[in-house]
Design a protein that fits this description.
Oligomer: single chain
Distance between the termini: 43 Å
Number of helices: 6
Order of helices and strands: HHHEHHEHE
Structural class: alpha+beta
CATH superfamily of the largest domain: Ribosomal protein L7/L12, C-terminal domain/Adaptor protein ClpS
CATH topology of the largest domain: Ribosomal Protein L30, Chain: A
CATH architecture of the largest domain: 2-Layer Sandwich
Strand content: 15-25%
Number of strands: 3
Strand order of the largest sheet: 2-1-3
Number of domains: 2
Helix content: 40-55%
Shape: elongated
Length: 126
């Protein structure tokens, strides 16, 4: 029994934060309980553990989630931000999950996001 618990603990420690959160939701639904307090304690980690420095993301991809109602305006902004021709810009605007810019700095990514959102698109920085 102890070996099974150790194996399960090892598997749980390999989960990403998103996977762990999804597991918590599944267990809450299955057992009809709320694990809010234990999750908060588990997220805090063991006392005395050195906090690892969080590396700030410096390069971003500008991704289209939805073109919105003003597709022509979005196409114009894509052409301004890139060197794409009209046809390629139109294809990009119509491609959900398409990357308008890749591996750009934070300021450039936020500027592009702002311009595209002003044109009516829904944008995500990844």
């Amino acid at each position: 029994m102890a070996a099974n618990l150790e194996k399960m603990a090892e598997q749980l420690s390999e989960l990403s934060v998103l996977e762990a959160a999804e597991l918590v939701k599944m267990l809450e639904e299955k057992w009809g309980v709320s694990a809010a307090a234990p999750v908060a304690m588990a997220a805090a980690g063991p006392a005395g553990a050195a906090a690892e420095p969080v590396e700030e993301q410096t390069e971003f991809d500008v991704v289209i989630k939805d073109t919105g109602p003003k597709k022509i305006e979005v196409i114009k902004v894509i052409r301004q931000l890139t060197s794409l021709g009209l046809g390629d810009a139109k294809t990009m605007a119509e491609t959900i999950g398409g990357k308008v810019l890749t591996q750009v700095g934070k300021d450039s990514a936020q500027d592009a996001k702002k311009k595209l959102e002003e044109a009516g698109a829904v944008i995500e920085l990844v």
